[in-house]
Design a protein that fits this description.
By secondary structure, the chain is α/β, with parallel strands linked by helices. The chain has 3 domains: 97 residues, Rossmann fold; 58 residues, no CATH class; 71 residues, Orthogonal Bundle (Arc Repressor Mutant, subunit A), CATH 1.10.10. Helix content is 45%, strand content 7%. The protein is flat and about 65 Å long. The two termini are 41 Å apart.
Length: 253
Amino acid sequence: MIPMDHLPGSARWRDSLARVLLHPAPLWVYGEMGTGVSTVAAWMAAQRDVPLLDGAERLEAGALEAWIEANPKGVLASHRSPADPATAGLASRCLPFRLLALEDDPGSLPLCLVAMAAEEGLQGPLPEALAALPCPGNLVGLRNRLVRWKLLGQLPDPAAAMGGPDLPLASENLAVNLHVLERVLLHRALRRSYGNRAEAAQRLGVSRRQLYLLIARHGDPVRGEAASSAGPKRLRKRQQLKFQDPGAPPISS
């Protein structure tokens, strides 16, 4: 396991970790996929000598409430924020403990990589490409990246690291491409903020009003809301002209 003080965001909670473990309420440990939620929650449960509930979001409300009642100092691991409407009522009884993604704390990536390399028995300098962001899959993805290099000599594809092949830019039309990029960035911000729209707006550098306009245009994948707007004028004009350009790709929201 990567040392706790190497994990992304540890600088924020390192000094208060002992107090967190002594807190009388259940702990709700959460974060994106691959951030080590299950591993950290298991470590915390062992430190507190209490039961662990991994995948807490998969339980129905009644079963989750019964588990919390039976384990008032237990540790719950989840990839869902305690503020999620589906679990907010019960999760509010827990102390939230969020694990950040690598992109939220880029300075932690080299430390994590060195710790993983030591576990894999690798010594000496590592290729710079191994520490490149973005790193899909967070800590799990970083370990897979390291193992692929160790066993197969494969390094991350620079184009993939920049998001090239994964970005669906099928058209050369600027309006269409800007629309696609806008949707990708909006949905990523909403997912990384677990649907917290104030945080998503801050990540995107827009006002709350602008964020709601973007959500109307592209929908909200966290809350399951579909797009309700026809999009900006430049796209509507493009849609009207599509019959004159049979090769133009469909414009999806």
